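Lecture 7 notes: from sequence to structure.

We start with a single chain of 108 residues. Read the sequence below before looking at the structure.
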Amino acid sequence: MSIVKQLQPKNYTYKANDVTNPVGPTLPPSSAPDPHSLHFNVQGKNFVGLVAQEIEGIMPELVNKMQGWINGAPVSDLRTVDPSAMLYVLINAVKELAARVEALEAAP
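Now the structure, written as tokens:
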């Protein structure tokens, strides 16, 4: 459960300024949305999630690191979050809490 307590969800919007594979010529550096971004169709939409750089030290198995482009410039440390393992962490946290509740209920 200590892992879950360390996680800090954030509100954010996609800038759509990242790509994992450039299509055609590399665009000049710009903070404008890139039409080839995986997030181009959801730019400006509000989401709740985890910041990869923040959870990397807590649960590195949730973070993927790859080469990509941000604002048209190549980067070797583009990070994405794969939350699939989080389900099992949450199951264990619920089991731990259930055991604590049962112990408190059984106490005289």
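The two ends are 26 Å apart (CA to CA). Keep this in mind for problem set 3.
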